[in-house]
Write a structure and sequence with these properties.
Strand content: under 5%
Low-confidence stretches: none
Mean pLDDT: 76
Helix content: 40-55%
Structural class: mainly alpha
Number of strands: 0
Shape: elongated
Order of helices and strands: HH
Length: 64
């Protein structure tokens, strides 16, 4: 689940109209990062391409 550019463009309006939506969009990324399933030091940018399974990138290799 890659976070599309459209979500990033819409974040200011989400923050203004209903800030809870941002939490719902970002919570799965935070939970996966905190679980220690991503070995790199920088933050994870998506949860993998296996939708609806959020398997992430446990090997640390992020496809371009």
């Amino acid at each position: 689940m890659t976070i599309p550019v459209q979500v990033n463009r819409r974040m200011p309006i989400f923050l203004y109209l209903q800030p809870e939506i941002l939490g719902l969009l970002l919570e799965p990324l935070f939970l996966h990062q905190e679980a220690g399933l991503y070995p790199n030091k920088y933050s994870i940018h998506d949860l993998g391409a296996s939708f609806p399974n959020a398997t992430g990138h446990a090997d640390g290799i992020v496809p371009e």
